[in-house]
Amino acid sequence: MEHFYIERKTGNPVKEKFFSNSMVKFLYDPLRENYNFLFKMLTSSRSSKAAAFFYYDFLPALNPLKSVNELLDEFSIEKSELYPDLESYKTPKSVFERKINYLAKRPMPDSDFSIVSPCDSRISIGDENSNSVFFIKNKFFSMEELISKKKWTDTFKLGNFAVFRLTPDKYHYNHCPVSGIVEDFYEIEGANHSCNPYAVQKIEKPLSKNRRAVTIINTDVSGGTKAGMVAMVEIAALMIGKIIQCCSSNLYEENKEMKKGLFLKKGMPKSRFAPGSSTVVLLFEKNKVRFDEDLLFFSKLKNIPSIFTNDFENPLVEIDLNVREQIAVKL
């Protein structure tokens, strides 16, 4: 089935071009899923790292004539946004792990009370007032599995959420969506399932089965966004080697350790995914935030072909947006 998303800045539907789709379909064929040992081995961390090496190191070495410029053109990456400059990028892998001049190229709203996108991605949102929210939530993840600790499960019960899907061509740094103090940070071991929509609709609650890092942010502090507790869950996926915490309030220079008590400033780099596709989930407390009207409107369009809509039997359309764009405001 064809899969379309909405480009936020134009409102136009765009057909998605999937990367490594043949491999994903091979892995998630129902026959192979039934062979539990083989399937678990192929979606393990070790196999995922091997696949990443094959796609991002070995294959490019076989085709050295394919220049960085050609790769940038293929992925429609704006060369002027690279940080510090184009000459710093010598290999395909360096392009996938690139830095950008985000202050100029990813502007952020002035409001202290806005919530912004943590990454260049395609967003799916769940609103507690939507008739389909619980159905959609239970397809993507189980709250109890996703964040594991009952204390935080209770905190975010019945709250709103947003799922951000990064594709391999995207900028792979995550930025802080809110300002506040780290109340808790922990990592959870798991598999490396693909976040490709084809794979997501084949596996029950895949996002809560993958390896992930959970950051709980208290925004009701001095200098905070005043939107209650916010959970930022960074989820590894197929061909993601690891999630690297590299928080910096000065471009990319500081690489602070992620720990309880650290103040995070909205819009600053927080972490980086290794090459591949990956996902970030934001969780909000009940009645604390309101998603932007255009995102609510686009996500419920009924005439846009979508793998999620087709499988979930309810409208669910992704919207393509940039890191540091406003997605919601605090109530």
Main attributes of the structure:
331 residues; alpha+beta; ten-stranded mixed β-sheet; three-stranded antiparallel β-sheet
What does this 3D model show about the protein?
The chain has 331 residues and is an alpha+beta fold. It has one domain. Helix content is 27%, strand content 24%. The chain contains 13 helices and 18 strands. Strands 2-1-17-6-7-15-11-10-9-13 form a 10-stranded mixed β-sheet. Strands 5-18-16 form a 3-stranded antiparallel β-sheet. Strand 1 and strand 2 form a beta hairpin. It is globular.
Lay out the secondary structure.
Elements (H helix, E strand, L loop, with lengths): L3 E4 L4 E4 L5 H7 L2 H4 L2 H7 L2 H18 L5 H7 L7 E2 L8 H5 L2 E2 L1 H4 L8 E3 L4 E6 L6 H8 L2 H5 L2 H6 L5 E6 L6 E3 L4 E9 L8 H4 L11 E7 L10 E7 L7 E3 L17 E2 L4 E5 L4 E7 L4 E3 L1 H7 L7 H6 L6 E3 L4 E5 L1
What is the terminal-to-terminal distance?
39 Å
For the largest beta-sheet, the strand count, sense and barrel status come to: 10 strands, mixed
Query: Spans with pLDDT under 50 lasting ≥5 residues?
Result: 129-134
Q: Determine Rg (CA atoms, Å).
A: 19 Å
Q: What shape does the CA trace take?
A: globular
Percent of residues in helices = 25-40%
| Class of secondary structure makeup | alpha+beta
User: What is the average of the pLDDT values?
Assistant: 84
Q: How many strand units? A: 18
The domain count comes to 1
| Total DSSP helices | 13
Give the strand order of the largest sheet, numbering strands 1, 2, ... along the chain. 2-1-17-6-7-15-11-10-9-13
- Per DSSP, what share of the residues sits in E-state strands of 2 or more residues? 15-25%
